[in-house]
Structures are given as structure tokens and as C-alpha cells.
Amino acid sequence: MAAIRAKILRRASRFDSTQATAEASPYLPRGTYVPDDTDDTVSMSTARAACFAAEEVKANAICVFTVTGRSAMYVSKQRPNVQVIALTNSDATARRLALCFGVLPVKIRKWNTIDSMLANGIKRLKQLQLLKTRDKAVILCGTTTTPGATNMIKVLTV
Q1: Segment-wise mean pLDDT, segments of 10 residues, the chain, 158 residues
Q2: Nearest to 88 by CA among 134, 50, 37, 124
């Protein structure tokens, strides 16, 4: 029995080291998601652009303001190298986004204007110590408060 256990542990250890090596490889494809016919092209394009912008400016996070969660899911599909923070006012959306790759849902108060949305969101992220002063963040949101209208990217130094 001990011999079998030792053999299993050796194989598991080998798998762990292989996985770590593979994930550290510069050849691991990132951001190679190919959209399908069900993807909204405007939202997908802005999500992809936000990921590229975050990489270029070496941002600490991508902050996605979302009502339905779709924009945060599009960003998640890109597998960015930075933390994706989804700010939403919906409990159901926050629970659903908790299952997405690399997405940290944060509940905020309902917003009426873009200015109040950004101010309340950044204030909440600073309270939770997810962003600090002088951190760079890529903001992804819509220019209206209508769900499904993601069309704005903003690079912000907190």
C-alpha cells in the first residue's frame, strides 16, 4: 500500500511541476479567444481593447462596470494577466461572475450617471484595498446606464 501511495505522489509531483512550467512559458497563448456568432461585436471589441490597453500601460486591474455581467465575461474570455474586477449593483450578477476565470465581483450602489458610477466604484475599490493611490486601472463601461451598451474604455491613475 505504501508503494502505491509513493508512486501516486511522485506522479502528482511530476504533474505539478509540468503544469507550473507550462503556465510560466512565454508561448502560452493569451488573448487568443476567437469570437463566435453569438458574441456582440461592439462589446467583444471593447473588452479585447481593454485587455490590450491594460497590458500596454501595465495596469493593476481592469475594472468592468456591468449590470448583466456580459462585458466582464468577455474580458474573462481574453484571459488577461491582470485582475478583472467586475463592479455591479446586482446580487445575481455578482454570484454568476464569481464563477468566471479571474473575475472578482464587487457589489456597489446603483448609479444614475457615469460620473457617479466611476466615483463610487473607485471609492469602493480603495475601501476594499483592491486599488491604491497611483495604481493604474483600465475602466470598461458604457456611456449610458443602459444594460448591454459597453462602449467606453478609460485608463485611469487612481
Answers
A1: 68 60 59 59 85 93 93 90 93 93 91 86 92 94 76 90
A2: 124
Grid cell 446603483 is found at 110
How far apart CA 5 and CA 65 sit, in angstroms, is 48
> What CA–CA distance (Å, rounded) separates 66 from 105?
10
* Architecture in CATH of 41-157: 3-Layer(aba) Sandwich (3.40)
**What's the whole-model pTM score?**
0.74
Q: Where are the domains of the chain?
A: 41-157
What is the bridge-based pairing of β-strands 83-88 and 103-107? parallel
All three cell numbers of 31, joined, read: 488573448
